[in-house]
Specification:
By secondary structure, the protein is α/β, with parallel strands linked by helices. The protein has 19 helices and 20 strands. A 7-stranded mixed beta sheet has the order 8-7-16-17-18-15-19. Strands 10-2-1-14-20 form a 5-stranded parallel beta sheet. A 3-stranded antiparallel beta sheet has the order 5-9-6, with helices on one face. Strand 3 and strand 4 form a beta hairpin. Helix 1 runs parallel beside helix 12, helix 1 runs parallel beside helix 18 and helix 5 packs antiparallel against helix 6.
Amino acid sequence: MAAITVLGGGISGLSTAWYLAQKVPSSVTIKVVEASSRVGGWIRTDRRSTPLGEIVAEAGPRTLRTGKSPDALSVLELLDDLDLRSHVIMSSAQSPAALNRFIYYGGTLNRMPSSLSSLASGLPAAATCLVSGVWHDFTRKSNTPMDSDESVRAFIERRFGAKVDDNLASAVMHGIYAADTKDLSARALLYPFWLADRMGSRGVISGLRKVARVSRARHAGQSVETGERRARNPEFWASVEGASMYSFKDGMQTLPNELAKRLGERPNVELATGQKVVAARVGATGRAQIEVHGGRVIESDHVVNTLPLHSMHGVFGNDMPMGHTPYSSVVVVNLTYKGKGRTPVDGFGYLVPRASQHESRALGVVFDSCALPEQDTCDVTRVTVMLGGPRFKELFASKDVEAEAKLLALDTVQRELGIRGDALDIHVTVGMRCIPTYTTGYVDRLQQMHEWTKRQLNGRMSLVGAAYGGPAVPQCVNHARIHVHNHLNLDTLTEPQCVSGLEEIIQAFDLPA
């Protein structure tokens, strides 16, 4: 009897198992192996009791973006299949959370333009560097380096000037990767701009139109078809059209919990928690064998590995090309205060750029009650302070990280938002090594990882996860979907697949002919 093992019970592993369960016959067994006692990975929602009632505290991602990209549509398709439509709460594209996003600069909140019309009121102080930056790129001769990659910092400074990075780009990268632009790969994370720099006659802006043509040609036929779904559930899909982002009434944990529940209802699926992978090898019959803590050996025809790279390193050894990829550590502090409207402005929140690190010790602050007011069932204001990332060692030199994080978070909202008084609830989550850092040279290492993976376990292992196609939930879900639908030959599972799961990701970074 054919069998597939999925390593990891985070959103990548659960999504992979779900798509497999839709495609393979019930005679094929699917085993999901998770080291921790729960599923969802870094998606984690805690329900907290306060004197005023229960609140939602998100320790990881808290919203999902709408849109027409395959990533966004894959998640919407998934929750439609899971019948989670009634659990979804949408944030309108015209809501303050959608229109008002800030950068903390010059000791104040700078509202970033959300549209061309919003530019009528002028650029905030943090963004005035864009004018000189665009002029710098437009007037400076091409100076593309010979190397295939450079840091995000080096790329932006070279083409647009250091202030664009110090004031703006560094803040965005803090919010997504919790990492310093000096460490991040321009080719991986700014690919359209990186490519435009190579295709343009005089820098980035002159090459963007050429890149747009290449992108349209590459992505032709890669859409997620939703026509039939819209006909079946028109009200839900109409609400998607008018929204900029969404979550769930009971928090993001709703999605992995429902996936686990549905998978558990299938007789050919086993979801095993508390099972840390300690070894991987090829058995005497040529099948893959996964050994977990305690000595249990799971034999299967194919293994889809969604483990973090630092967990894989201990299993597969030092020759793994991406084994030493650094991961950012982030401390998330959920603060709840009595009364509504305690933030000085309405909006999604703010990020802190490198230029303001002498004024703020946070990576950013999310205004949860404004972003998702439907989650509040009592008279409270919820905000979340994110700390650490590139400053983790600096801020948390003491061993008591939670105690230090509480003090830092309370000081942040008091000084930067004017929120004073005792918090009703303080919830701290320490995410050690939670976000992979796409460092300079990432694309070359990804190609090496692709070749290495195809040789592992006699061609019976492939990869899905946050370290490859992007760390966001939609990217992880779509990576799982593409891999199951496009890469695995499910009709010949007993034969080595000899695929890595990285094929389309690598292709997306190829230079056009």
